[in-house]
Amino acid sequence: MQLNHYLNFQGQTEQAFNFYKSVFGGEFAMISRYGDLPPEEGVTLTEEEKNSILHVSLPINDFTVLMASDVNDQFCAPNSVFTQGNNHYISINLDADEIDEAQRLFDALSVNGQIEMPLEKTFWGALYGAFTDQFGVKWMVNCQLDAE
Q1: Residue 45's CATH number
Q2: Which residue, 42, 47, 102, 131, could crosslink 96 as a Cys pair with Cβ 3.0–4.6 Å?
Q3: Are residues 94 and 144 in the same domain?
Q4: Residues in CB range of 43: below 8 A, 6 or more apart
């Protein structure tokens, strides 16, 4: 089994995923837009909505794919409202194998975000830091340090 992260945005998916692609590298495995949907009775999309991301997936490594979409109220469950940051109890944790990679990920992903804990050595023997990125996604970067 593979556990992947699926994020939702409100019109920022393409911007966010181009940013994540610049950090992690690789290519999108899939990208589709609401305009690619077959016509459906009762559903009318503006040109802006047609250009919004229906689904995007970015493989991070052999075991992880980061996925997302732009929320469109016409396709949401009744009484379901998107609120940026309502995922504040959920964070994506990145376990880096090397200190330099942990620092690179922390520095790159936290650009224009809000650092909650700087990347630093912790009492549990790891290099650890936490932040919310510029798109409202919470991240933790962790790198286990060798025993001294």
Answers
A1: 3.30.720.100
A2: 102
A3: yes
A4: 37, 74
Residues in the chain: 148
Could you please report the per-residue DSSP string of 86-135?
TTTT--EEEE-SSHHHHHHHHHHHTTTSEEEEEEEE-TTSEEEEEEE-TT
d(CA 109, CA 126): 19
Domain count of the chain?
2
Q: Distance between CA atoms of 131 and 139, rounded to whole angstroms?
A: 6
- Structural domain of 119: 90-148
Q: How far is CA 106 from CA 14, 27, 64, 93, 137, in A?
A: 21, 21, 18, 11, 13
- Containing H/E element for 83? none
Query: Could you tell me how far CA 138 lies from the centroid of its own chain?
Result: 8
Whose tokens are 């376990």? That residue is 95
Q: What is the C-alpha separation between 56 and 54, in angstroms, rounded?
A: 7
- Determine, yes or no, domain membership for 111: yes
Domain final position from 76, 110, 127: 76
Question: What is the tens place of the pLDDT at every residue in 9-62?
Answer: 989 999 999 999 999 999 999 999 998 888 888 788 889 989 999 999 999 999
